[in-house]
Design brief:
single chain; 498 residues; alpha/beta; Leucine Aminopeptidase, subunit E, domain 1; Aminopeptidase; 2 domains; 8-stranded mixed beta sheet; 6-stranded mixed beta sheet; 19 strands; 37% helix; binds ligand BES; binds manganese (II) ion; binds zinc ion
Length: 498
């Protein structure tokens, strides 16, 4: 992970590989860039080779200043300036700079003090995200061939608030951690190894971690999670991590009340569809069906670094959805932890089953809020596309808070309905309390309303359907190829704002 620190000396005396100036259209005319670099910027602007237009960029090779390259990135007009575009543009530029054999970089930005709060956090995020790629299984020569060797190691910023950039880096670091885990294939990360990883992770970060194996799941009546996992040779696990704020009084003593938030993640380490087997094209990338769970671990990594006053729980329902001699079947009727029976209509609608038990577990903790994340439905991806996640909640306060955090962190989130009575009627089974699959129409709402049956009434709860946004075919902006870990920064922002 590249660190960003504040420039301690003058711009003039800094020697390194590259310099990056972020410029608005208005600033181009004024040109507040410090000498000796101002003359290059002025010349480019005069020749109209660079005007600060949004998304524009230029590279000036230098020969005299002890710095190899000067990069300019346009931020556009002040009124069209958007934080999300800045984060994307900046990450893109940094990625390019890192691939153009620059090991060290000084960032110059012309910003007012009022903007420091927003811009410096974004700087930290962009620096933290720009170098991400999942290449541990790739030969080094291959990377070089593709021109993707990233060498940037050190970034300093002029006039930055290092506290703010550090916050951005905590967000980015958590997201990269979640990406690394989600990108691992199903032959490496399965429910059992995921539980081992979580246990080790908890120890490293001073968190509590409890893992329930299949015997314990049986005793606890988690019939839905068990059903999904029974077709695999690797049994399912429930993983529960806890962050307790420092100074929180122990049980029994009179404690000052702190907020308690539970994050719940879908951890299907591979989703073949089960006996309702997916067609080949749809099975591809289903190693990413554990993204919700990986995000939960990422969030807890961030929480451990942020040290908020809130108590934060991470709950992961891990299973592998496979066909096999012992696999659960269509027509099966299973009993979830809260006592409700579910008739299986489609074994590929497995995420809502594992979450059913995890949400009832989370409810028992009596938190002030439950937020679950899941690559739950293709329908949500069809509705919103690949760069937006769906938000389902009946709680206006939680909705407003999450939408605000998503906006601040540049992760697109859109609220979808959860109060459709007609869809609600289709949840009922002729032979059990509920049925797990419904019509393809309104599939994301059906799934959310199904989950609602397992959350204790009165607990504010939000469901984030990240199918679609969880996996990127190509890199763009803050996203690298593969797992995106969409939502980690939004959720951390939500915690930081509590
Ligand atoms: N994991 C999938 C959803 C998914 C699809 C995630 C595409 C990411 C990209 C989920 O378990 C699933 O298979 N859902 C089915 C539900 C249906 C059988 C009711 C779907 O969306 O088709
Ligand atoms: Mn499925
Ligand atoms: Zn799935």
């Amino acid at each position: 992970m590249i660190k960003i620190s504040a420039l301690s000396d003058s711009v003039k005396s800094w020697k390194g590989d590259a310099l990056l100036a972020l410029m608005r259209e208005e600033d181009c005319k004024k040109c507040l860039i410090a000498p000796p670099y101002d003359k290059y910027v002025k010349a480019l602007v005069e020749r109209k080779d660079f005007e600060g237009k949004k998304g524009s960029a230029a590279r000036v090779p230098l020969f005299e200043e002890g710095v190899k390259n000067l990069y300019l990135v346009g931020l556009g007009k002040a009124e069209e300036y958007a934080p999300a575009a800045l984060r994307d543009g900046l990450t893109h530029a940094l990625r390019k700079i890192g691939r153009e054999r620059n090991e060290s970089l000084l960032i110059l930005s012309d910003k007012s003090d009022a903007e420091t709060d927003v811009i410096d956090v974004i700087l930290g995020e962009a620096v933290g995200l720009c170098g991400y790629s999942f290449e541990k299984y790739k030969k080094k020569e291959k990377k070089e061939e593709q021109g993707e060797t990233f060498v940037l190691k050190e970034v300093v910023g002029d006039r930055i608030d290092a506290k703010k950039t550090a916050l951005g880096q905590i967000f980015a670091d958590a997201q990269c951690f979640a990406r690394d885990l989600a990108n691992e294939p199903g032959n490496v990360v399965n429910p059992v190894t995921l539980a081992q990883i979580a246990t080790r992770f908890a120890k490293e970060h001073g968190l509590d971690c409890e893992v329930w194996d299949e015997k314990k799941l049986e005793r606890e009546g988690m019939g839905a999670l068990l059903a999904v996992g029974q077709g695999s040779v690797t049994p399912p696990r429930l993983i529960h991590l806890t962050y307790t704020p420092k100074g929180k009084a122990k049980k029994g003593t009179k404690a000052t009340k702190v907020k308690k938030v539970a994050f719940v993640g879908k951890g299907i380490t591979f989703d073949s569809g089960g006996l309702d087997l997916k067609p080949s094209d749809f099975m591809r990338t289903m190693k990413g069906d554990k993204s919700g769970a990986c995000n939960v671990l990422g969030i807890l990594k961030g929480v451990a670094a942020l040290e908020p006053k809130a108590e934060v729980h991470g709950i992961i329902a891990a299973a592998e959805n496979m066909p096999g001699g012992n696999a659960f079947r269509p027509d099966d009727i299973v009993r979830a932890r809260n006592g409700k029976t579910i008739e299986i209509d489609n074994t590929d609608a497995e995420g809502r089953l594992v979450l059913a038990d995890a949400l009832s577990f989370a409810s028992d903790l009596k938190p002030d809020a439950i937020i679950d994340m899941a690559t739950l439905t293709g329908a949500c991806a069809v509705a919103l596309g690949n760069w937006t996640a769906g938000l389902f909640t009946a709680d206006e306060g939680l909705s407003a808070a999450l939408l605000a955090s998503a906006q601040k962190r540049g992760e697109r989130l859109w609220r979808l309905p959860m109060d459709d009575e007609k869809i609600g009627e289709t949840l009922k089974s002729k032979f059990a309390d509920l049925v797990n699959g419904g019509s393809r129409y309104g599939g994301a709402t059906f799934a959310a309303m199904f989950l609602n049956e397992f959350v204790e009434k009165g607990i504010p709860w939000a469901h984030l359907d990240i199918a679609g946004a969880d996996f990127m075919k190509e890199e763009s902006g803050v996203y690298a190829r593969g797992a995106s870990a969409w939502g980690v920064r939004t959720c951390l922002d939500y915690i930081a704002a509590l």
